[in-house]
Amino acid sequence: MKILINNNDLNEALENVSNLGFVPTMGSLHKGHISLIKQSKKKCNKTIVSIFVNPKQFNNKNDFEKYPRSKKRDLSILKRLKVNYVYLPSVKEIYKVKKFSKVIISKNDKILCAKYRKGHFEGVIDVMERLIENIKPQKIFMGEKDFQQIYLLKKYLRKHSSKIIECKTIRERNKLALSSRNSLLQKREINLAAKLITNIMKLKKKLNMQSNIKKVLNKTANEIDKLQNVKIEYLELRNVKNLKISNKLKNSKIFLSFYINNIRLIDNF
Ligand code: AMP
Description:
The chain is about 40% helix and about 20% strand. The chain is an alpha/beta fold.
């Protein structure tokens, strides 16, 4: 496994590589990341994983600072998985090129996380453009857990020849989606988060053509909001093609975001 930290390293290592699979991450690796890496290894000749906690996509300095980091453990996981390359750029390395024009997300797309995390996706799109430009992968493996992220990247990334491959969300047995942020929660908070997710999944199964879905979800959101130390940001059914609010289950998913003790979790199903 080669560790690469700058453009020279990348150019040298990747010069003759064809069908390169890329898994961008912010580290603190878990089974969700591992599933992306395994798919890349299956579908590509070589796999590169980046670990970069991108300050520009955090709308809150405190959130950036407390974001979990575990470089040593991550590297040992990547080595065990026999990943070919790990890209560990510094903030300075990524932002040394200033030429990227500002990303502007349209008003219609300022929904879900784009509504509540100001500047977040602008930061994600910008850093992905930089990573793609540096790495030039054929395929990029990303998780559906961040459905809106994939949706906006497909819409706003400047023309490039990499293909984004969507990978399904990996969950714990209790149905909670794996997330690096889960490590910031206490055991009882994890249990509460899992219970909320399971209940909303059950609720979704009970919804039918007759249901006033918006009303049911609003009522559920209000009930969740009354729980101690829980704050719900959104709970909405949206069409997966255009992310418009939907009142039909077909081609739609429930999207939700909530805080438990100031730790923000998102999911969709
Ligand atoms: P992150 O390190 O949180 O920025 O995530 C890096 C990539 O892993 C993104 O494409 C995420 O969507 C994906 N990912 C995170 N959690 C999961 C999960 N539970 N299942 C599948 N993919 C995930």
